[in-house]
Amino acid sequence: MIKRIKKSIKGVFLTGVIAVIPAGVTIYILYLIIKLMNNLVRFVPARYHPDQLLPFHIPGLGVIITLILIFTIGLVTRSYLGKKLALLGDRMVRQIPLVRGIYNALKQFVDAVFSDKGQSFKKAVLIEYPRKGLYSIAFVTGVSRGEVQVKTLQRCVNVFVPTTPNPTSGFYIMVPEGDMITLDMTVEEAFTLIISGGIVSPEDIQYMPEKGETHADNI
């Protein structure tokens, strides 16, 4: 009887942990982001601070100002003069040793993820990695081009293999398209599977490729 009670209490506690941790971590990350945005108001001179100009305090003012600033920069950058200034700044940063390596990597990553033309993380696939017979989930980031594609015997696809439980780090691999297995699960479901270390799995989906269909058709 006592063992059953202990087992029941343990089960309830673990259920609570599973429910609290994801929500708690998400709330904490949002709190840090909002706190960082609110701290930007501190750079405003005291005489021009909104709290000094307005008769009342506006909660979350830093977040509002940050969003307006980002939107304004986006509008300016889309203009003819803004594009010229952005190109000039881009060229200047690329001339600085060490900094240009970091800048180029970050710019290419951001362009790939946030640009409408980007093809990153559009599909989850299975590849045999780190060796034959072992499978890892990867995300297609595009088709290999240029010298890399010319010097390979097969048409290769760029994939990103994230690590567990931190999917922000991982490996860039060029995989022959015939060696990929396309998954029907969404990118979000694949990320959940990776972050949980396989504990949380999406519902099984039976996938039967149509006759004549290739992996490249799904990219």
Discrete helix count: 7
Query: Can you count the beta strands?
Result: 5
Supply the helix-strand structural class: alpha+beta
The proportion of residues in beta strands is: 5-15%
Series of secondary-structure elements, N-terminal to C-terminal: HHHHHEEHEEEH
Q: Helicity level, as a percent range?
A: 40-55%
Distance separating the two termini: 57 Å
Q: In order across it, which strands form the biggest sheet?
A: 4-3-2-1-5
Average residue pLDDT: 78
Could you name the ranges where pLDDT drops below 50 across 5 or more consecutive residues? Answer: 204-208
Q: Rough shape?
A: flat
How would a textbook summarize the main sheet?
A: 5 strands, antiparallel
> How big is the Rg?
24 Å
Notes on the protein architecture:
The chain has 219 residues and is α+β, with helices and mostly antiparallel strands. It has a five-stranded antiparallel sheet with strand order 4-3-2-1-5, covered by helices on one side. The protein is built from seven helices and five strands; from the N terminus they run H-H-H-H-H-E-E-H-E-E-E-H. The longest helix has 38 residues, at 2-39. It is flat, with a radius of gyration of 24 Å. The chain has a domain at 124-218. A hairpin with a 7-residue loop joins strand 3 (156-162) and strand 4 (170-176). The chain has helices spanning 2-39, 50-53, 61-78, 80-94, 99-114, 147-150, 187-195; strands at 124-128, 135-143, 156-162, 170-176, 181-182.
